[in-house]
Amino acid sequence: MLALRPIVWPIVLALFPSIAVAQHYDPSLLAGLHWRLIGPFRGGRTVGATGVPGQPNVFYIGVNNGGVWKSTDYGRTWRPIFDDQATGSVGALAVAGSDPNVIYVGSGEGLQRPDLSVGDGIYKSTDGGRTWRQLGLQDGQQIPAVIVDPHDANRVFVAVLGHPYGPNAERGVFRSQDGGVTWQKVLYTDENTGAMDVAFDPANPQTVFAVLCHRRPADRPGPAGPHRPRRVGRRARPHVRGGGRRHRRRGVPL
Q1: pLDDT tens across 239-250, in order?
Q2: Residue 37 pLDDT
Q3: Which CATH architecture has domain 42-249?
């Protein structure tokens, strides 16, 4: 960390010159800051992690083959809160901004790799992780992204990648407007194309971005290239180059 300081600070000051003009800091004030591992101390891959707005001491992580863990003391200690469920493979998790007791977990790691673990759909907790309920989408097997409307804990979008080694229909982007009681497939291409990611426009949750992927672990990757979303009427139309597709829908009641 000490060796990087002479490089990092000039970059920061170049990007934000007002910092250099308005404030001056003694570099020794930062000498004690360093990265440290806060756990939980286990091997494996972790792709899901989130904090809780307004609760800086609370964190959740979802482990690809280790369930969900929670810390309430700024990461000093962690405890597993998902061990009683039928799967331990987690690809994504999200806490509702309007109700921090509501947590959605997408099972199935969603990483395209030779060895992977699949899941059995979406789970939900309404009591901060003490109890869980399975909400469906079991045949999706891999769920790499879940997002919750920051103003409505019942409005949820899920990116479902689908079976890793074969075709299936339960893939694409799914939406629930009743907290996961029912799901609607709102973006779908075919039985071989799944959804890798989904995100809201930070300024407007009615605008939703999604990334679709047509590839399996044994496939040869297609050529890479830039992708640009395009708005055409009321339907999502992709601008495609290479092997991926990115979609955007805006101004419609998603």
Answers
A1: 433 344 444 444
A2: 80
A3: 7 Propeller (2.130)
